[in-house]
Amino acid sequence: MKVILDSVGPCPTAIDAHVVDETLARRRFVSLLRSHGHDAKAIRGELMSIGWHEKAAENAIAEIFDSKSISPQLHGRRVGPDLTRLPSRLDLGDRGASVQVRVHHPDLCLVGDFLSADECERLIADATPLLRRSLIIRADGVVDENGEEAYSRTSDQANFLPGASELVDAIQQRVSRFTGWPATHMENTQVVRYRPGADFGPHHDFFDPEAHRGLIDREGQRIATLILYLNTPPDGGVTTFTDIELEIYPQRGSAVYFAYPQQSPASLTMHSGAPLGSGEKWIATYFLRDRAISQH
């Protein structure tokens, strides 16, 4: 989406009139106000006086005033994939897909037909004999980086190394083509099964910048996630983005992508998997990192 921002008054509430991406323009605008000495309360009042919605103003202010926020983007650089100019129809190399929903804050999109029904069924069949209880890496960094079982994630999981099968490699390359991010910067393909009553409590996917400093220094930070829905659960299992009150209902073959170039609550990417009432829910997950990582 594009927007032309004209001058809205004397400096510091003025920006040169030119076409820029809407989200980036708004962030730069708030950053400019702050650079001229305005505090959060004053900026909020200024934004609302020129027609900003209260929630939009508060979100933009939270980003700029968060010390872990988006300074790289404000200087024209982005850490991670840039999907700001997605067409409605996608060429994924070996398959076409369609963008169905786009959100700019957080950076999120829902894509239909990312996988065929046959691919979903084959991936589930390949993963079934490899399933083990899912693990988590705790935010407090108390346990080792291999993770632990936890009540907050009650599911089973199978991991696939690169080269495990032609199907696994083809899907990973499709993810790479969609995001423009190299497969060498992705964690192994993870297929997860949820059964009735199973869920995954509210969480962020990035590593805690302080508690997991050693892991981040060696293997890099997570910067984006892509979830593939391998089936359509009959009851429950929605993916909920708590901060923006968005619910994604799983549909076989669809994908949801979301990025968090700033690893803090300001990313608005806290999400959860709601419990299933019946049946099973199957997903495949891809975590993108900011550098190449070892595959093991």
Percent range for β-strand residues:
25-35%
CATH topology of the largest domain: Jelly Rolls
Rg from Cα: 20 Å
Summing up helix and strand content along with how strands pair, one would put the structural category as alpha+beta
The number of helical runs is 7
In spatial order, strands of the major sheet run 3-4-5-14-10-17-8-7-6
- The rounded distance between the terminal residues' Cα atoms is 40 Å
Protein name: 2OG-Fe(II) oxygenase
Organism: Luteibacter anthropi
Pfam family, one: 2OG-FeII_Oxy_3
Keywords: Dioxygenase, Iron, Metal-binding, Oxidoreductase, Vitamin C
Question: Explain this structure to me?
Answer:
The protein folds into two domains: 45 residues; 203 residues, q2cbj1_9rhob like domain (Jelly Rolls, Sandwich), CATH 2.60.120.620. The chain has 296 residues and is α+β, with helices and mostly antiparallel strands. β3 and β4 form a beta hairpin. The protein starts with a strand and ends in a 7-residue tail after the last strand. Strands 3-4-5-14-10-17-8-7-6 form a nine-stranded antiparallel β-sheet, with helices on one face. A four-stranded antiparallel β-sheet has the order 9-15-12-13, with no helix packed on it. A two-stranded antiparallel ribbon has the order 1-2. It contains seven helices and 17 strands. It is 24% helix and 26% strand. The longest helix is centred in the first third of the chain and has 14 residues. This is 2OG-Fe(II) oxygenase. Keywords: Dioxygenase, Iron, Metal-binding, Oxidoreductase, Vitamin C. Its cofactor is L-ascorbate.
